[in-house]
Amino acid sequence: MRCRICGQPAVINMRHHKLSLCAEHYIPWFIKQTERTIHKYRMFTPEERILVAVSGGKDSLALWDVLLKLGYHADGLYIDLGIDGGFGYSSRSKEKVLAFHHSHPEANLHIVDIPGIYAESVPEVARRKHHMRRPCAICGVIKRHEMNRVALSEGYDVLATGHNLDDEAATLFGNVLHWHVGYLQRQGPILPADGEGLARKVKPFARLYERETAAYALLTGIDYIYEECPFAKGATSITHKETLTEMEHKSPGTKLQFYVNFLRAKEEGLLCNAEAQRVELHPCERCGQPTTAARLCRFCRLWE
Amino acid sequence: MRCRICGQPAVINMRHHKLSLCAEHYIPWFIKQTERTIHKYRMFTPEERILVAVSGGKDSLALWDVLLKLGYHADGLYIDLGIDGGFGYSSRSKEKVLAFHHSHPEANLHIVDIPGIYAESVPEVARRKHHMRRPCAICGVIKRHEMNRVALSEGYDVLATGHNLDDEAATLFGNVLHWHVGYLQRQGPILPADGEGLARKVKPFARLYERETAAYALLTGIDYIYEECPFAKGATSITHKETLTEMEHKSPGTKLQFYVNFLRAKEEGLLCNAEAQRVELHPCERCGQPTTAARLCRFCRLWE
Q1: Which residues of B are less than 8 Å from A269 in CB distance?
Q2: For the segment B221-237, what is each residue's pLDDT rounded down to a tens digit?
């Protein structure tokens, strides 16, 4: 297996692209691919201020790194969820983020300490509210709310997350299995700001495989947390990822085609009753963020 | 495992319905489910004449059997494709159809002998036209053409096929993986006649698992051909079936929900640019059946 550009031994073979590259040529290829996705979906311009949600994992730190290398004004946001899982998941992931920020002093890092602000960790909220062992749904509500809050209050133009193609394909797969038309409508590499308090959201890695973001992180020496969130084990999205990975193995490019063809079909007007399904949003009485609920948004109801 | 109705030992456990039944109660349940699907999708009325495409396999013979038991005017159509596969696939499947017809003399059976009429078997056409080892695409063209031809020339109101839920879910899965919007639009348990030469097509088993049609055939003593078509091995649809079956195993009801939710989403107007994608049909210059091609339909071009 040789690098297609220089003929030296390759470090990665991307069967879906029929492309093998050495480390020296992989890194610029990866950065270029990210830039292409940013331009293709008009995610943001060099003048805009970007807030990157960083978890300490490979995807989000790689994204922050690439955006800084591309010269974008990209700051970080770390949300400390207070998850231990027997190995100090949150504190260890925070260390990785702090270390990355230490070596990139040109960028700002915002830290939101959930237990510090709200007097409860995410697992504690989940236990109190729903006696749930898996706090993933509530964790999603909290993260989305806090990301949006910081993006707006600190005057960022756009919120970027490290979702890769494997994440996007698995979400799409789940939405298709249940034919959640509303979710299908909103899924994509860019979700525009709604003009009433929801920041624009972008996923610059949406067309890059998880294997590719991992390779970038490894080859550029980014120190990230290898462990998944302890609550992720057994999640449906992981089962979907396994199914898709098996299909990808049999037929390279399956995930990419599945996702890209979906976006194309949507652009061509596949999902038409989406307008009818679009619900009315109004400001939450407590925090002011848009909500479909009558008085308080889902986040504020967590603390009732 | 006990029958939910009488408490006797059950012969089948349908986890997706949380329902176990003995043979005595399974057979009427299966017939009732088929009748419900016929009514739900307004497939046909007791006054209409139905042509059932029978291959000699469990699904199509079970369908013919159920329609006759329900008192419908249902005749059979067997298309001899001239496939041998080392074990006389076509001649053995024809024997099964003839034996079934022998014990149901109230119904008519039409037989179309492809090698007899067109002087070539289906594998021979495929080899001549495309040097293909797998004649499935061409076989589909020939079967659809001949089914439609007989249905119209013999004055049938509707053409019924034995496609079961596993078939439908696998087809849907393939169409979703590639986001074939046109195919998605046309897929469903009923395809109305177009008024210009395409017969109405219905799939009364579309909501019944393959396991359920097999159980019905076994329990009612229908003698069918166990072997798949020798060319089916390795087909993409079989890979999709395996993937879905694994998912069904982990989460019973996956296939049914996937299919039923798709139909519901479509009814609610999911696929909106379908009208735009609908192509113009005009009669084939040779056979008169509707085609998108300029002069001859795909079937007639096979014999050029």
Answers
A1: 272-273, 276
A2: 999 999 989 998 878 88
